[in-house]
Amino acid sequence: MIRRMYEWVLHWAETPYGAWALFFLAVAESSFFPIPPDVLLIALAVSIPSKAFKYALICTTGSVIGGVIGYGIGFYSMQAIGMRIIEFYGLGHKYDYAADLYRRYDALTIFVAGFTPLPFKVLTISGGALKINFFVFVAASAMGRATRFLLVGALIYRFGDDIRNIIDRYFNLMTIIFTILLIGGFLILSRLL
């Protein structure tokens, strides 16, 4: 089943809708949706390595816009919507500690969340609720997400078909590793918060 989903995702690179699908997935993931856009970014970039940077920029742009939406959810509707999303990820009880992280580290908190597999949406919503300086928030989000997605794009652009062959050969193992990293990100955030 995972292999079929991988093939289905790869097919988007052959259609005019692949970039749009990547953009909307990145928007949703940064504000409320649990599935990260990395899988689709990698699939699209691997299928057409010459467009790897284009896809990385689309993913970055969508992710930053999604982060702004998450910030807006926290800023305007923390109790009604924001806390429900944060509680969905099991982090509602540690919200005060997140506030302390923002007070101490400000932009670094959002940059780290944007670059690592930590659940970005939780910190975008928290940033809005805590009324973090909006321009600092957007700049740190853009830097963290761009660093992450452009690094992926650069690796695929540089190694192209070699990376595709590795992904094809070790897809199941890579899926397990990616899932472990994603769950690890949630666990690390829950321990930090």
Jot down its keywords.
single chain, 193 residues, mainly alpha, 82% helix, 0% strand
What percentage of the residues does DSSP assign to strands (E)? under 5%
Series of H and E elements: HHHHHHHHH
What structural class results from the helix and strand content? mainly alpha
Number of helices: 9
The biggest beta sheet is recorded as:
none
Q: Regions with pLDDT < 50 over 5+ consecutive residues? A: none
**Averaged pLDDT, please?**
82
Shape: elongated
End-to-end distance, in Å? 35 Å
| Count of individual domains | 1
| Helix fraction bin | over 70%
Radius of gyration of CA atoms, rounded to a whole number? 17 Å
Q: Tally of extended strands?
A: 0
Task: Walk me through what this model shows.
With about 190 residues, this protein is mainly α. The protein is built from 9 helices and no strands. It has one domain. The longest helix is centred in the middle third of the chain and has 37 residues, at about 50-90.
Short description:
By secondary structure, the chain is mainly alpha-helical. It has helices spanning 2-11, 18-31, 38-47, 52-88, 95-105, 107-115, 120-129, 134-169, 171-192. The chain has one domain.
Write the layout of secondary structure elements.
Layout (H helix, E strand, L loop, with lengths): L1 H10 L6 H14 L6 H10 L4 H37 L6 H11 L1 H9 L4 H10 L4 H36 L1 H22 L1
